[in-house]
């Protein structure tokens, strides 16, 4: 990867004035950006290149960014738990058959003959993973199928 020079970074950055309704947090330091502040915008691919070249720990930055995005999505999408009785009625226990399927919650493999849980939308997950997920969200993490709520 070619090092990002100060002049190449300046070329990638677009300056924008934060207007009312656009207030948000800086994705690097997570501090509030206020109305009237002149912020810098840069395409995500350029941001990663600059982070790598600057020596900043990209994993820490990505974790911060994902945490922030998750919090925003939860507030926007009214994320809340699925109804416990609907979980008992609608979630089916199934044996994993041949195929290299992964649990898309923990990203680990669903091993053949393992007893997993299937949502009404047919997506399959580890039982423990699905249980934890549905205590926080009533949506399928893959297709956004909505489970009933209280």
From TrEMBL:
Task: Write down the SMART domains for this protein, in alphabetical order.
Answer: RING
Keywords from the named record: Metal-binding, Zinc, Zinc-finger
Q: Which GO terms describe its biological process?
A: protein ubiquitination
Single GO term (MF): zinc ion binding
What top-level branch of life does the organism fall under?
Eukaryota
Write down a Pfam family by its short name: zf-RING_2
Looking at the UniProt record for this protein, which Gene Ontology cellular component terms does it annotate, in alphabetical order?
A: cytoplasm
Its EC number(s)? 2.3.2.27
Q: Describe the location of the RING-type domain by residue ranges.
A: 103-144
User: Does the record carry Cytoplasm as a key word?
Assistant: no
Q: Show the catalytic activity.
A: S-ubiquitinyl-[E2 ubiquitin-conjugating enzyme]-L-cysteine + [acceptor protein]-L-lysine = [E2 ubiquitin-conjugating enzyme]-L-cysteine + N(6)-ubiquitinyl-[acceptor protein]-L-lysine
Q: What is this protein called?
A: RING-type E3 ubiquitin transferase
Write down the species.
Gossypium lobatum
């Amino acid at each position: 990867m070619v090092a990002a020079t100060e002049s190449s970074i300046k070329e990638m950055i677009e300056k924008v004035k934060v207007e009312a309704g656009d207030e948000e947090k800086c994705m690097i330091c997570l501090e509030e950006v206020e109305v009237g502040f002149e912020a810098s915008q840069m395409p995500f691919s350029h941001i990663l290149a600059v982070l790598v070249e600057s020596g900043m720990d990209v994993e820490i930055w990505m974790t911060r960014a994902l945490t922030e995005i998750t919090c925003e999505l939860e507030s926007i999408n009214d994320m809340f738990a699925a109804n416990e009785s609907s979980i008992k009625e609608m979630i089916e226990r199934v044996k994993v058959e041949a195929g290299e399927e992964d649990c898309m919650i923990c990203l680990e493999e669903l091993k053949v003959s393992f007893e997993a849980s299937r949502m009404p939308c047919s997506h399959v997950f580890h039982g423990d993973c699905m249980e934890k997920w549905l205590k926080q969200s009533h949506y399928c993490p893959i297709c956004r199928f909505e489970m009933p709520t209280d």
